[in-house]
Amino acid sequence: MIDLRSDTVTLPTEEMRKAMFEAELGDDVYGEDPTVNRLQEMAAEMMGKDAALFVPSGTMGNQVAVLTHTEPGSEVILEADSHIYYYESAAASVFAGVQPRPLAGKRGVLSAELVEWAIRQDDIHLPPTSLICLENTHNRAGGTIVPLEDMQKVYAVACKHNLPIHLDGARIFNASVASGVPVKDFTACTTSVQFCFSKGLSAPVGSIIAGPRDFIEQARRWRKRLGGGMRQAGIIAAAGIVALETMIDRLADDHANARFLADALALMKELDFNPEDVDTNIVIVKPVNMSVRQLGNELEKRGIFTVVMEPDRVRLTTNKDVDRSDIEKTITVFREILG
Ligand code: TLP
Questions:
Q1: Per-residue confidence (pLDDT) for residue 124, from 0 to 100
Q2: Which residue puts its alpha carbon closest to atom 17 of ligand 1?
Q3: Which of 88, 97, 311, 330 has the fewest CB atoms within 10 Å of its CB?
Q4: Residue 204, SS3?
Q5: Residue 31 Cα, ligand 1 centroid: separation in angstroms?
Q6: Considering the entire predicted model, what is its pTM?
Q7: Which domain CATH number covers 258?
């Protein structure tokens, strides 16, 4: 089986398992787990923020951030294909009671002009804008990097209107490794950031939210309300520490494999996609003469697992647990199926 469904499928390394086994533990709801505290300090430093909070998942991290930044009845500006809008089961509406204001980006990039246009005037008829969300890399756009300059322009608009920016940086290390832009430069354009340990960094579970100290204190309360206060959480935080220490540079291998795959698939005229759109570890293709479901099934019959994105695209995500020979086999199977 070659599992290209996601980088979330990656298994922890031996070093992570050992660190988990040996982790020093305490009750994190009392703030007494030394391993969680160490991970939070490391993460805050790496993100260039005052403080950080360990949460069970990327979704909870994003939702805690939305809850902390907003009031019910306000409006959140986000990209129309962003994870917070598209893949979190309307959680922002259900829990925070906010109205999403989805705006169409180009390759996941929101223009500052469009964002400024969408910010509401003070008028009794209109929900006040409370938050702007960005995503980098952008998942549904195909793991695309939102360029630093674009983030800076949106940040300037946010500052002008006194609005916070939350970055869904589930894969912010992919953006940094692939572009050479330091993570802190990206996060300097945001109020808060969420990133995941459980994607390309290959830890089994967990995410971080980082931001100003008072924001993190409020976020801690929201995490508790949502049932995300974990006890001896150092057992999973230990893997996060190993992820930050050993797994960031390795993301370049995933990017090289995605590039190799994209260049080969681009030569197949039965697939419609632009290999230039592949910036990091996600390759999204569109079959021309076959339904996506059919393509997904044919690949699966031959042991290659992908994500079928209805109605017309198939996603392949390179990750630690697939190597170059798996990618070569995938290319051969595509040739076999497409004829
Ligand atoms: N993305 C998953 C699926 O939910 C689609 C994947 O396989 O790519 N932000 C971004 C940008 C994400 O891609 C994801 C997960 C999350 C947040 C949520 O993280 P988790 O799964 O930890 O809740």
A1: 98
A2: 58
A3: 311
A4: coil
A5: 27
A6: 0.98
A7: 3.90.1150.10
Which phi and psi angles does 109 have, rounded to 5°? -95, 125
Cα 121 to middle of ligand 1, angstroms: 33
At 313 the pLDDT is 97
Statement to judge: residues 171 and 258 lie in one domain: no
Range of the domain at 306: 250-338
Answer yes or no: do 269 and 229 share one domain: no
Q: How many other CB atoms are found less than 10 A from the CB of residue 16?
A: 24
Distance 7 CA to ligand 1 centre (A): 9
Do 64 and 131 share a domain, yes or no?
Answer: yes
Is residue 70 within a helix (H) or strand (E), and if so which, with residue range?
none
Quote the ligand 1 centre to 237 CA distance (angstroms): 19
- From CA 244, how far away is CA 168, in angstroms rounded? 18
* Residues lower than pLDDT 50 in the chain: none
Q: Which of 204, 220, 246 is the last residue of a domain?
A: 246
178 and 54 assigned to the same domain: yes
**What CATH number should be reported for the domain holding residue 228?**
3.40.640.10
Residue from 166, 196, 305 to probe ligand 1 pocket by mutation (most atoms less than 8 Å from CB): 196
What confidence score (pLDDT) does residue 339 get?
Answer: 80
The type of residue at 200 is G
Atom of ligand 1 nearest to the CA of 7: 7
* Closest residue CA from atom 13 of ligand 1: 139
Same domain for 207 and 102?
A: yes
CA gyration radius for the chain?
A: 20
81 C-beta closer than 6 A to ligand 1? no
Find out whether 209 and 51 touch, Cβ atoms under 8 Å.
no
